[in-house]
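Final paragraph of the annual report: two paired records, presented back to back.
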Amino acid sequence: MTLLRDEDLAAAFDHAARGYDALVAANPGYHAHLRRSARRLGLPRRGGGLRVLDLGCGTGASTAALAAVLPGARITGVDASAGMLERAAAKAWPDGVTFVRAPAEGLAEAGVEGPFDAVFAAYLFRNVSDPDAVLAAVRELLAPGGRLGVHEYTLGGRRADRAVWTLVCRGIVQPTATAFGDAGLYRHLWRSVVEFDTAGRFAGRLRAAGFEAVRALPLPGWQTGITHTFVGRRPRTESEDQG
């Protein structure tokens, strides 16, 4: 199968929205790992007075992680899927959490404007057609010194990492997703990971996009070597950027 992109991918997520929360709840550590990645942003004052963009928020799991770690922040969740966003918006949220429907490539057209103190993106970049263009847009939305956190399936590069990922997808995820009628989306999930950057390559992509202090941090449990947190920062001055 070819990878799902743009409108086709958004439509697949629309259909999957009804069973999405139940499926991810079966993933050991899913929500705890998102909270860990949110903490790795290293934002001060529990987010007090800060603006945070949750790019590709889905049904709100990443938004909930940010709200738990940064209760003082104003959080804007953005997603291209109307079905996923409807599920997210229907949940109970603290003041300061809002949602906007927009593709990652069309934030300005949807009225999403910076500066943000941080951008967080979970399970997003391997799903966009042009990750470098999205990274450039994200960089412009960040305030100078603003932080980027990416939580993504990025294989570590060992054969064992791909083998474990394939085993989990074919033995657990895809049979469960088929029962919900979403087999195509989760076949895309498997392939999108094995065809995307390794962790080292994605860290290099962030540096090439102009982010500094980039780090790739593993996550524990069965996802070690499969899922990573990436953190980086927009330089504070133009001279830093050029240096």
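The closing record of the year follows.
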Amino acid sequence: MARFLKGIVGAYSGKVGSVVGSSWRSVDYVKSLPKMTGKKASVGQIEQRTKFALAVAFLSPIKDVLNLGYSDKLQGKATGYNKALQFLLNNGITGTYPSLEIDYSKVVISKGALSNLMGVEWAEINAGELEISWSPEINKFNAFADDSVVLLMYNKTKNFFSIMESATRLDASLSLPLPVSYSGDTLEGWIFTGHRDGIKTSLSYYLGELVLA
């Protein structure tokens, strides 16, 4: 792609022969059209495209959560969604094409210097009632009493995400009533902590798979 100066006839836009003229932020450019190819994609290329489509379909509904989860200043400038997507592509797609699936234990929804919760467990204590518990350990460096606890839950049966942020580190537990329609469904869960400043987060923790009664 080349930048050009306006001559007597000025800049142009649109296709002319094998080149395309365009303008962006008052700067005019000309670039050649991409070359068409009749070559079929290789099995490896198709596999990569399938992996990408699988990862995008899973993470796209939770872009806002991922951007929050990777908001820690230690994570650089790329968006949380892009970082989570890259990590999932590199580490969290299992199987042999075309039988590919997501390894939920390798999904990372947040990453930062804040301490995550210790001794986290989740269980369906009564039919339709979910409880998550943890040890309320705090310190003055990276684990504060008022750190928010963020729960991300994925209903694998219904392909539906839900998020809850109503507890603090010091609370030591949170309860969540589940819809009656969730009976018998399979859940995947992740949890992380967030600082009061809104930008420090912890590395997320995978809670595991939970099959409801």
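Helices lie at 43-59, 63-69, 80-91. This concludes the annual technical report; the extension proposal builds directly on these records.
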